[in-house]
Design goal:
The protein has a 22-stranded antiparallel barrel. The protein has a five-stranded mixed beta sheet with strand order 1-6-7-4-5. 50% of the residues are buried. The N terminus is likely disordered. Helices cover 8% and strands 53% of the residues. It is mainly beta. The protein has one domain: Maltoporin, Chain A, CATH 2.40.170.
Length: 753
Amino acid sequence: MDLGPIEEIKVMMGGKTVLGSLLLVLSSSALAQPVPPAGDEPSDAEETAAVHDEGRLVVQETLVVTATSHEEAPAELPFLTESLTATELRSTSLVRTLPEALGEVGGIMVQKTSHGQGSPYLRGFTGFRTVFLIDGIRLNNSVLREGPNQYWNTVDAYGVDRLEVVHGPGSVLYGSDAIGGTVQALTRQALTRQTLTGEPGSKGVSLAAGSVLYRYASAERSSLGHLDLAGSLGPKWSYSFSGSIKDFGDLEAGGGQGRLPRTGYDEWDLSFKLRYALAPDTELVAAYQQVSVDDAWRTHRTIFGRSWRGTTVGNEKQRILDQGRTLAYLQLHHDRPGPFWDALTASLSLHRQEEDRDRIRADDQRDLQGFDVATLGAWVRFEKASRFGLWTYGVETYRDHVDSFRQRFAATGQLTGTDIQGPVADDASYRLSGVYIQNELPMGKRLRWILGARYSRAEADAAAVEDPLTGDQIRVVGDWDQVVGSARFMLPLASGRWRLFGGLSQAFRAPNLSDLTRFDSARSQEIETPSPGLEPENFLSYELGVRVETARSSVELVAFHTEIDDMIVRVPTGAIIDGDFEVTKANGGDGFSRGWDLKARTRWGRHLSAFGTLSWVNGEVDQFQGSAVALSDSPVTVSPVTVREPLDRLMPFTAHLGMRWQPAAKPYWVEVLATLADRQDRLSSRDLADTDRIPPGGTPGYTSWTLRGGWEIQQRWVISAALANLTDEEFRIHGSGLNEPGRNLVVSLQRRF
């Protein structure tokens, strides 16, 4: 097999290639640092000072909240984590969307069915097997579907203060769906409590900080404008505002493929937050967010798609998605110790997500479908330090109410019928509740354990579901209970620079309304129909990692293995509905996902740093093949056969390698980044059938180069620019429905005030 550009990395340990040498240097720079004699080891403050003395060559770590629910340094956590700040998102990566902001994070592949969608894969899982949080509130709801979807794209990357990633299961803290990983967007904050407690100048309405940003990208033909404001409304009130307007034109693909029609779309976002200081140790936060995505085509299913390396072109004349999301919440943050807590946070939220799809088929028949999900959420979390460790415990509940519709029209535009349901059940409810406890327990002078357990309950009641056999309306109900646990450890070794960490974590996913009641197109030439009677999926993950840190370098290597039990997988029935092959679902998928991630960063001299990530993931799961129903004059039920296959859309072996030059104490920098992906030809039967998106034989490997830099002028103006896909490479991220932009000039201008 031709390994393409990644072949050199796989033999890097021989030290005979340029890429291999780079990774060896990154590793050896960290591992070969002399260890001071006992008693002479520099303190954390001394190491930090040394970094600042020699220039900003190692990215300063930001505390992470998502891994344990309270702030901790990533180096102290028994998890593989990543934290992206607003500065990195806006001025370094110059991101277009929030999913694309994760594209340079090791261990993540961002699949894009269309230019208006983006779905990160973490450890082989995506869609409803990963969890997304916004300020602690779940974006996941009961209509999220299997595989890639567009819902993460409804969070404005320019309204995010910090984006956190925790790889691996997180079901103890975050319940159902937290299998591949958990990602949290912490949105822009209003002023801090210290500003709110009557300091001079805090009275009256004032503007304390703000910025205006404009971003332009040539290959995206896009313009993006963003405004940030923050200030006070008196001695106890403060506010923040964030708003974006985005106009994305048709994409210009690389390698001379040209402009891709019907790939552009429009979007606007706004967010408003109020903070009220009830007391020096207590505050109330009220927030409102709204996002609207208009006319985002799924082009690969239409006649406007482009064939690439043998992919097929769809036959639909139109498939347009409009997406809307609103979130309103009220949160109480209380740090005054009580009898059973040292701190507590309580949240009450109303989260609404809407989706409309307007499709015109090849025969000019039109259907309009969509859903509206209103989710009422409430949770409270406590923290308590004791001589038995730091306890974190809480309770949460989310209740969805779902309305769904589908209307059919003749080619003349006349309404011909209204279905019982849309893509999921109409007049449906779904409740997901849980109670959890976690203890961070030191044992001896070095060893630290994080032990946790959770009980969850899910309940579904779908009143209007269409029976695919009779066309009659049926009701689907179900309830499920689940208990999961987790045990992780952190063990600093003798020198203090080495840390060994790992553990075992259970995870689960309860069947949601998409599993139970979906009646909609799935992948190429497939339609999914309702599947009552499903049970939860179960996962058990083993993880072991080593972390080495010095004043100049860091290396982190993590290996994982996840056992999959009773995964809900599609079952072909042999029936054909509206020209598509029918599939239903069943608990039949046993298998595994395994892999490793390597992160390294080092500083050379005063001005130069190098960084890199390597990621490999593999996985297999049992899938049903054959038909559950044989088509004949007298249908006969036959048992489908399970076959062990690769996981769908496995991330290929991928590397991100870069170097950064930034003179000490200077306001400008330059960076070069290479992204390399291997050919992916480990395909499931569904991958092979997904001919609109995956070329015959698999997705070719690629190398993409980016050159970028920035200049901060008097702390007021920030100019950033990037030349992405420098060589105009023609490539596609595995499983995507369109190619990536060609040579792309991205320019950002920000004015702070």
